[in-house]
Structures are given as structure tokens and as C-alpha cells.
Design goal:
Elements (H helix, E strand, L loop, with lengths): L5 H4 L6 E7 L2 H11 L49 E11 L8 E16 L2 E13 L5 E12 L19 E5 L3 H10 L10 H8 L8 H16 L3 E8 L9 E7 L3 E8 L3 E10 L1
Antiparallel strand pairs: 1-3, 2-5, 2-7, 3-4, 4-5, 6-8, 7-10, 8-9, 9-10
Helix pairs in contact: 2-3
């Protein structure tokens, strides 16, 4: 890949786009089936569960406009970063008003920042995207800052382990994603990234030993876990990917509920943290 021309990449700052979507009950119902969410809570007029807005506002480009990784070719809305791997790094989401199933919602997105850093694995480029979801009347429903990280391909072998906190969690729940889980979530989010379904590509191009579990899926389950253990809706949710979780891993969601917030983390096979998060309660 080429060298990092940060000045050129930063010319993408301020680039924006917008679209509208129907928050369809049928699509939400398919998501409920994917994550074993109670189907009776899905229906027109009900509030969309936290982070389920990620399965709407889908971009469907023809195959000729996709990169070799299955994502849209670089240099469109997102900057053309010359590093092999692209992943969700984390984000910050504010839930300002309910997104109602059955409603029309407008999503406005813009590039907030592009940064170049150097980590243990080499060059890293972070692109931060602002997403705002609004009602037809202009009411701001969700404000989200989403961090995308670009990095060189992984060296063969396992990623460095990140140990869980010494303090045990008050609440824990384990789930084991299957190839069907990954297929369904990729289909629901129209995510063509090959790390979620093409094992040869994972191993030979991006350096993962197996299919990668979607970071946004883990974040979504952590957000639901926070609501479940607290019995309250979320006001803010911050999450950060720590290490990739792979097909075959059992993912355990951990939560410690405090007065007005929930501290969360997810582990793969209970020994290694794959995501950290914190929820502020409304």
C-alpha cells in the first residue's frame, strides 16, 4: 500500500451526505430473530432498540463500485486511506428521542476528522464520522460519532490478549455466534465486508485466523444488556473495540450497574476482552 498523505486525506473533512429511510417493522423483526429479541416488542409505534438504526439507511452500490474487501471503493464518501484493513474502532451515541418503528427518519452524515497515529502494529488512520438522525419535522433523535480505523494487515497468529477487569461483573450473559448469525447480520446491514463470510480472504489477505464477528453486533448486544440489567432506557452509549472476536468464540457480555450508568465489557471465551463500553441511563 502507499504512504500516508494526511494532508490529502484531510481534504475529506466536511464531506457530507443525507438520505431517508422507513424504519420498517419487518426489518426490525428480522433483527429480533437474529439476536433472540422478544418479537412482541416489535411493532409500529414502538421505540427501536438501541443501535438497531445501524440496520437501516443502507447503501447498495453495484459490484463494480466495491473494493476487493467488499466495502465501497475508497475515495467516495470516506477518504482513500492506503492501508489494507478497515474496522469499526468505536463510537459515541446519544439517544435524544425515540426512533419509532414505522416512522420516516432522515440521516445526515459528515466527516468530522481524519487522524494519523502510529501504534504497536504500525500506521493507523482514524476517520470520525458524525451521523445525525432526525424526524421529518427536524427533531434530532440520535447523534452519533463513529470512529473507523484503517491499519495494515494483521501478522499471522492470534491478536494480543487483553485481560478482563479484576472486579467481577454483577451481570453476565453468554452467547455463541454461528455462521448463520454472521450471515444474517451481514444481510440485515447489507455489509459486504468479506471478513465476515470469506474464510480464505480472512486468512490470506487480512490476516485473521477465522471469520470475524461484527463489532457493531457486539456493541448492539452490550447496549441491550445495559437496558436489560438496569431496567431503564439509555441516554448515551460509548463503545470501543479492543480485540477481534472470531467465529468459534463464545462471547460473554458483562455489566456492572451503578446509580446512573452501566459499565460493560465483552469477552471472548471469558479470558480476553473484545469490547469495552459504558452506558449513561436516561
Amino acid at each position: 500500500m502507499g504512504s500516508i498523505d494526511l494532508e490529502h486525506l484531510r481534504t475529506w473533512i466536511g464531506k457530507s451526505r443525507a438520505n431517508e429511510d422507513l424504519i420498517a417493522a419487518r426489518h426490525a423483526g428480522l433483527m429480533a430473530a437474529t439476536v433472540d429479541y422478544p418479537a412482541e416488542r416489535i411493532g409500529d409505534g414502538e421505540a427501536l432498540p438501541p443501535l438497531w438504526h445501524w440496520i437501516y439507511f443502507l447503501e447498495g452500490l453495484p459490484s463494480r463500485e466495491l473494493g476487493r474487501d467488499g466495502h465501497p471503493a475508497r475515495g467516495g464518501f470516506l477518504p482513500p486511506v492506503p492501508l489494507a484493513n478497515r474496522m469499526w474502532a468505536g463510537g459515541r451515541v446519544s439517544f435524544l428521542a425515540p426512533v419509532r418503528i414505522g416512522s420516516i427518519v432522515r440521516k445526515e452524515s459528515s466527516i468530522l476528522n481524519v487522524e494519523h497515529k502510529t501504534g504497536r502494529s504500525g500506521d493507523l488512520v482514524f476517520a470520525t464520522v458524525l451521523h445525525e438522525l432526525k424526524s421529518p419535522q427536524g427533531e434530532l433523535l440520535i447523534r452519533e460519532e463513529h470512529d473507523i480505523v484503517y491499519k495494515d494487515a494483521n501478522a499471522p497468529g492470534k491478536a494480543a490478549a487483553v485481560a478482563p477487569p479484576a472486579m467481577p461483573a454483577q451481570f453476565s450473559r453468554t452467547w455463541t455466534p454461528t455462521t448463520t448469525t454472521l450471515f444474517r447480520y451481514s444481510a440485515l446491514s447489507f455489509n459486504g465486508h468479506r471478513i465476515h463470510y470469506d474464510a480464505d480472504y480472512c486468512r490470506n489477505v487480512e490476516g485473521y485466523p477465522n471469520l470475524v464477528i461484527h463489532g457493531p453486533l457486539t456493541a448492539t448486544l452490550l447496549a441491550s444488556h445495559a437496558e436489560e440489567v438496569s431496567g431503564r432506557r439509555l441516554r448515551d452509549f460509548t463503545y470501543r473495540g479492543v480485540s477481534p472476536a472470531l467465529l468459534g468464540d463464545s462471547i460473554t457480555l458483562h455489566a456492572n450497574a451503578l446509580e446512573d450508568r452501566v459499565v460493560l465489557y465483552a469477552t471472548r471465551d471469558e479470558h480476553t476482552v473484545c469490547m469495552q463500553a459504558e452506558a449513561t441511563l436516561g
